[in-house]
Give the backbone structure.
Amino acid sequence: MRLLDLPAQHAPLQAEFDASLQRVMQAGDFIQGAEVQRFADELGAFLGGAHAVPCANGTDALQLALMSLNLQPGDEVLVPAFTYVATAEAVAVLGLKPVLVDVRPDTFTLDPVAAATAITLRTRAIMAVHLYGQCADLTALQQLCRQHGLALIEDNAQAIGATWQLPDGGHVAAGTVGEVGTTSFFPSKNLGAMGDGGAMLTRDASRAAQLHELANHGQRRGQKYVHHRIGLNSRLDTLQAALLRTKLPHLGSWTAARQHIAAQYDAALGGLTRLHIPARQPGSTHVFHQYTITLANQTERDALQQYLQQHGVPSVVYYPTPLHLQPAYQYLGHRPGEFAVAEHLCATVLSLPIHPVMPPEQVRYVGEVVQTWARG
Ligand SMILES: *Cc1c(COP(=O)(O)O)cnc(C)c1O
């Protein structure tokens, strides 16, 4: 059994992939060009009419999003203590200060109450991470941002295709609520390339133009060798754009397949007292980048992981170490115990296999193995 089976997921699209690659090779337009713009337009349309600006990877997307805010060295950006390292890295690498904030014990996303207490006169932005495939509490975070004049950045690397219900009842795509959203096309993400890729998302056309500039050496469209800003060379590869255009029309059905598997896991595991299924964030749909459960403590988590492995079921810990205990972030001066929820989650989370072409008998089998362990 595999956590992810990209060869099987890609197999039915092989002829289309071949045609895409041929199209790019024959056009000979290997950097930017029409293919990248078409992908950007199609992704924007898929996300309800937002502007999508492709770039080289999801980490660059976060960095470019921050660069578009014109911050000063030493400005503070709130970041969850429980996330992939890229979220904090993008802040730190720009000479800004990542201010870690604990996550909620029920949904594992940035805690708006803890965020409120971390705001200082230097705070400029909040980075919310839509962890495992569902949105952070965007209404609470947006309210906090409005109160304090902060920008909201959504790290949507794990929740592309999820939706958020606005206070007025309307539904919008995750990643298009804040000033800038970002996503990643790392191969294992819900919409993965066959290499690196990423994008910024925004509803603001002038910010989209600015992000495009920043990702292309600060150069405006049609103005070669005039550099308006200090930017990056961070472009989505044209071949990757062509492959992603082939995959994008399938993202909806792949997401539905993930949601179906998650519902089966919920049914199989829901009654077991030896494990816990995290709460679903009201207002958000969940695209199940991961199906993650928690155990009572690390001994229990490690025992289940070992039992699964003995029965041929792979599982992963996303993430084993909170940011404040990572060697590179010791300079922030935090101690063990400071972000208790993040630390507890690192010791107790476990992600089970979930991917769009996972055979139903495997889903059933995983459920049965976990049940046997939990009742044993
Ligand atoms: C994958 C991921 C990123 C980084 O994306 P890359 O494309 O690998 O640079 C950032 N944040 C989160 C939450 C991620 O899961």
Observations:
- The chain has two domains: 6-249, 251-374.
- The chain has a mean pLDDT of 97.
- The CA atoms of residues 132 and 321 lie 16 Å apart.
- The chain is about 40% helix and 15% strand.
